[in-house]
Structures are given as C-alpha cells and as structure tokens.
Amino acid sequence: MNSMFQKRFLKFCCYLLLTSSMLSAQNPLVTHIYTADPTARVFDGKLYIYPSHDAIPKNEEDAPRFYMPDYHMFSLENGSTWKDYGVILDQNEVPWGKKNANGMWAPDCIKNGDLYYYYFPAPPKDESSFRRIGVGVSKSPIGPFVWEKNYIQGIEGIDPGLLLDDDGKTYLFYASEKRLKGVKLKANMKEIDSEPIQIQGIPKGYVEGPFPFKHHGVYYLTFAHVFPNEGYTIGYATSKTPLGPYIYCGKIMDNIDNGTNHHSVVKYNDRWILFYHWWDISGFNKLRSMRADYLEFKKDGSIKKVEPTMRGIGHPKIGDTIQIDRYNEIYNAKTTFVGGNEPKGWMVCDTKMMSHVKFNGVDFEKGQAKLIKARVASGQRKGAFEIRLNNSKGKLIATFPVQYTGGWNSWQTIETNLLEQVKGVQDIVVVFVSEWGATKIVNLNWLLLK
Ligand code: FUB
C-alpha cells in the first residue's frame, strides 16, 4: 500500500470509528459510511436518497480504485436526520452480476403508478460489457425490491437517470463510453422500446452522470462535464423534447476539487436542491460523502450556479443538535475535529474576542424552547459566548459564561435559559467575548434548544 494512501486510509478508519452514528442535515449528509452519486427523489412528499456506497477496500490491490460492493438508501426524517435503511442490494444478490466485482456504481429509483423501479449498473458475469444496467421492482420506496433475472437488453453503460414524462412515457438516460445516450422504455419499465440514441447537443468533455428532469415544460439534462483546465464540473442542457436535441446552457457547479462529481436535482417543500458529492472528509477521492445545497432558477429558466456550503439544507428543530461548525459564516475562528472525551464531529476553535459563527435556519417552532444547551471544552475560565439573532450585533437571546472544563478537549454540556421567547425559523450568531488579545476563549461543538 503506498504511504499516501495508507495515511489517508488510517485517518479515514479513525474518523469512521469516531462517527459511527452521526447523521445530520448539514454537509456532509452522513458520516457513518461513505456515500456518493446521490440520486434524490421525492415520493409522496417524502425525500429519499438512493446513492452509491464507497466502502473501505479490504485488500491493498483494491486500494486506489472505487470499492463499491452494495447500495444503502436514506430518507429524511423530521427535516434534519437522514435515516439509513442499511444494505438494500448486495452485489452478490444480482442474478446476472459478476461476483465480488465491487462495481456497483450510481443508481436511480423512480415511481410509476404504484410501483418503484430501482435501476443500477453492475459488471455482468457474462463479461459482455464493462457495465450493464439492471432493474428491481418494489411496492415501497424502501424495498424490498425484486431483482430482474437479467440486465436490460440492448443497452450497456453506467449511471442510469430516469425521466417519467407527463404523458406517462419513461426515458432512460445513461453514459456509455463518455457519450450521453437515451432510450424510451416500454410500459413494463424493464425493456427498451426503441433503439438507444446518442443525445445531440451535449458538449465535448461530457463524461457521465446524466440526471434528467422537467421544469415549466422544459427538459433539463444535467451531467458531469470535464474542462481540460478545470476538471469535473456539473453542467446542464435544455430541450423541448425528452430525447433532444439539447442546447448546452452552462455550469451548475464549478469544479470543487480533482476527481468526480455526480448529482441530482429535486424539488422538495417548494425549494430546489442539488445533491452532489465531495471527499473533503476522507481527503481521498474514492471515499466520497454526499452533500446537498439549495439551487435556484432565474426567471428565464436558467440555473444559478450553486456554491458548495458546509451548512447545506434543512432546519434543526428543538431537540436537534445544531452543529455550529457547519456554519454559513465564520469570522476570526477556525474549525477542526474534536478529540478527548468527545466521540464525534468537528468543533469551532481558536475563538478570539469578537469572533463569530453564523448558522442560518434554526427552527424555534412555536416558541416552546426555554433553554439552550452547548457542548463546550475550555482550558481557561475568562469570557463568555453569546447567542444572537441575525447578525453579530443582533438581539441577544442567551449568554454562556465560559467555565474551565478540564482542558481544550475535555467536553461538558452546559445550559442556560433563553432570555426571551423566540419563534419560527431564525438565523443565529454565536459571538465570543473576552479581553482583547485573548487567543482562545472556548471550543464549541454544538448547540441544542430544549
Ligand atoms: O461512483 C462511481 C462512478 O463515479 C459513478 O458511476 C460516476 O458517475 C462517478 O461518480
């Protein structure tokens, strides 16, 4: 194993151990396993994600490659927690799949009528192609799925992306040798209804990850697009007909580092969301983590470029941890991993006089919260931190005097009363106060309304 991989691998193993049950609405969405290629879908008002799973390679020879043996799936619970349903398909359960090939790449799931159809690519045991695309059917979005005995005949490629049109016709898009292909499916959703075509109008540099959707009567095809001097970006094209020709319209997300990006776009609770992945946690681009940020359309139907944030989507409510290190804005402080007696996550550290951290969209609900808790560590006892609304000079709603907790990684939960009733969704700002010149006031992991 080369030493750079070994180091990252070890860092990952430690991190995994430390975060064995952490699920949240902030980015990354989950940290107890690595997840990539998130296809989000809303079924009957509930948000689901069907991602692929970057597992830890078991052998040295597998180390630098994707190691993807199965699929998990997730649903959003209470607006801020991602529930993991565990393995919904293992590679060795695919009737037509090559055993232990670790090539379960990006899937999709779509509802047609009362049934849910889960599409996935896998290496076939007949070795007829690099990847074939299979399908399973279920009465429920969370399975169990009944897997078809054979792959879909007449297509070969990766990254299935499904579009169910208003007229009931279904189209399957996929990537085949860096060409974006599309085909109409039969009503049974398991067979193609015409010859696949290469979608026209997709720019040079197209690689993979087609995700189709329709908005105000316009067909949008979004995809991974590589520019020679930039790397992976997420781009999009539009058309008046599902199978094109399409016109390239630009980028949805710039390159966020070297390696892949893969996404989906979904409307949930009246807001559009871009789901995508990054590997900023592991530091290794084959161990990725799914993320989400809001996406907006301009009046002319074009898409505003999405900036990746740590804050992500969702509104922590009363009783949820507000992971303050996943901030919208930070001033004169830093974040790093926790340690000591704290098993998981990150903290805000290096807090100085008038440092602040802003976290948008905390749901105070109907104003029933009476107090606020904070998870803190401090090696000194001077100063305080304040919780304010909207900005660093906004209304003061709580003050925590700093206490000595036994050291900078000795964690304690402290609490204080809210100074007044606060209702609805609010942006909060934590402001650190002490003597001018103080270089470390307190380390802060999370807040929680009670
Ligand atoms: O996750 C494996 C492959 O990497 C996907 O199929 C591609 O889209 C890229 O994300």
TrEMBL record:
<keyword id="KW-0119">Carbohydrate metabolism</keyword>
<dbReference type="InterPro" id="IPR008979">
    <property type="entry name" value="Galactose-bd-like_sf"/>
</dbReference>
<dbReference type="InterPro" id="IPR006584">
    <property type="entry name" value="Cellulose-bd_IV"/>
</dbReference>
<dbReference type="Pfam" id="PF04616">
    <property type="entry name" value="Glyco_hydro_43"/>
</dbReference>
<keyword id="KW-0378">Hydrolase</keyword>
<keyword id="KW-0858">Xylan degradation</keyword>
<dbReference type="GO" id="GO:0045493">
    <property type="term" value="P:xylan catabolic process"/>
</dbReference>
<dbReference type="GO" id="GO:0030246">
    <property type="term" value="F:carbohydrate binding"/>
</dbReference>
<keyword id="KW-0326">Glycosidase</keyword>
<feature type="signal peptide">
    <location>
        <begin position="1"/>
        <end position="25"/>
    </location>
</feature>
<keyword id="KW-0624">Polysaccharide degradation</keyword>
<protein>
    <submittedName>
        <fullName>Carbohydrate-binding protein</fullName>
    </submittedName>
</protein>
<dbReference type="Pfam" id="PF03422">
    <property type="entry name" value="CBM_6"/>
</dbReference>
<dbReference type="InterPro" id="IPR023296">
    <property type="entry name" value="Glyco_hydro_beta-prop_sf"/>
</dbReference>
<feature type="domain" description="CBM6">
    <location>
        <begin position="320"/>
        <end position="450"/>
    </location>
</feature>
<feature type="site" description="Important for catalytic activity, responsible for pKa modulation of the active site Glu and correct orientation of both the proton donor and substrate">
    <location>
        <position position="159"/>
    </location>
</feature>
<dbReference type="InterPro" id="IPR052176">
    <property type="entry name" value="Glycosyl_Hydrlase_43_Enz"/>
</dbReference>
<keyword id="KW-0732">Signal</keyword>
<comment type="similarity">
    <text>Belongs to the glycosyl hydrolase 43 family.</text>
</comment>
<dbReference type="GO" id="GO:0004553">
    <property type="term" value="F:hydrolase activity, hydrolyzing O-glycosyl compounds"/>
</dbReference>
<dbReference type="InterPro" id="IPR005084">
    <property type="entry name" value="CBM6"/>
</dbReference>
<dbReference type="InterPro" id="IPR006710">
    <property type="entry name" value="Glyco_hydro_43"/>
</dbReference>
